[in-house]
Design a protein that fits this description.
alpha/beta; about 20% strand; five-stranded mixed beta sheet; 5 helices; elongated; Glutaredoxin; 2 domains; about 190 residues
């Protein structure tokens, strides 16, 4: 009888420790996600299809600041490739700004990649962004390396990435605010 009591006590102790260990690891993961420090799951292949890890890159802002895609881990990212001369891009950009203003407080960012190597004039992207009042992060693909890496063939193209950097949606052509909201909801 005494041995059964000890065995039950040990079993209860192990169960309690297991619950504590599970809870502390879960809390740590949630803290990492809320701080944007979620580690990349290397078992998920890098690629351009839904379910792949988005390919990493680093580009510069107009001020020369280096921005990496991984800087936005922990946020939902609308990664938008565009050019100032592109009519659908011009239609879409105000929707991007509206979406950004509405969702930036919900751990969401619009990261616009200007395909600068396709621009007629180096000043055109900045003038266009000023005209539409864009305030979201903007980087410049001067040599077209990231455009090539993401195999952009239609303008604009938008990839939607979840907080872990996994592609949850891809759109070729202009999208409007309602499509952005649906894509955001799907990425959660």
């Amino acid at each position: 009888m005494k041995k059964n009591g000890i065995a039950i006590l040990i079993l209860l102790g192990l169960i309690a420790w297991g619950i504590y260990d599970y809870s502390s690891k879960r809390d740590e993961t949630q803290t990492q996600m809320s701080n944007g420090n979620m580690e990349v799951d290397e078992t998920i292949p890098e690629g351009l299809k839904v379910g792949n890890r988005a390919p990493a890159f680093s580009l510069q802002t107009k001020d020369g600041e280096s921005i990496q895609l991984s800087d936005y881990r922990g946020k939902t990212v609308l990664l938008n490739f565009w050019a100032s001369w592109c009519p659908p891009c011009k239609i879409e950009m105000p929707y991007m700004q509206d979406f950004y203003e509405e969702y930036q407080d919900k751990d969401t960012v619009v990261l616009a990649v200007n395909m600068t190597h396709l621009e007629k004039n180096a000043e055109d992207p900045g003038a266009f962004l000023e005209e539409v009042g864009a305030t979201f992060p903007m980087v410049y693909d001067l040599q077209g390396e990231v455009t090539d890496k993401y195999k952009i063939v239609a303008y604009p193209t938008t990839y939607v990435l979840n907080k872990q950097g996994i592609i949850t949606d891809r759109f070729q052509g202009a999208i409007d605010h309602s499509i952005m909201v649906k894509a955001y909801e799907k990425s959660k």
